[in-house]
Amino acid sequence: MNAYRDQYAQLFKGGRNVVLIGISVDSDTALASWARDAEFPFLFASDSDGVVGKVYGAFNAQYKMDNRNLFVVGPNGNIAWRATPFREIDPTAYTELGAAVDSLVPKE
User: 76: helix, coil or strand?
Assistant: First the structure.
């Protein structure tokens, strides 16, 4: 998540026409504390029961946690791009993510 924070302005257009939501099975209070302490400029949502993770095939029942998958949802509400799993330590993953976001964000 630090890479998302550090590249937020570039990858996610500083939040202009883009909404970034990190979803985790962690509690809402834990996520809120972490987001505040790390100064994340985007949203987090708690999926404590794994419902969202199950819908998107990201929930790992063995460990009762969501896998590090990433979905880019277009303005029409459909998934426009997915990385399952997202390779957070691979710099090319961010290039691919940036291109996916760019393809959906209106040009100014």
Answer: coil
CA pair distance 81, 15, nearest whole angstrom = 18
For residue 47, what are the domain limits? 2-104
Residue tagged 């993770």 (tokens): 53
pTM: 0.83
Which structure tokens are listed for 97? 């993510």
CATH code of 58's domain: 3.40.30.10
- φ and ψ of 63, to 5 deg: -105, 0
Helices (H) and strands (E) in the chain, counts: 5, 6
Rounded CA-CA distance 69/53 in Å is 9
User: Chain-centre distance of CA 14, in angstroms?
Assistant: 14
Name the domain count of the chain: 1
Specify the pLDDT at position 6.
92
Beta bridge partners of 61: none
Terminal C-alpha separation, the chain: 28
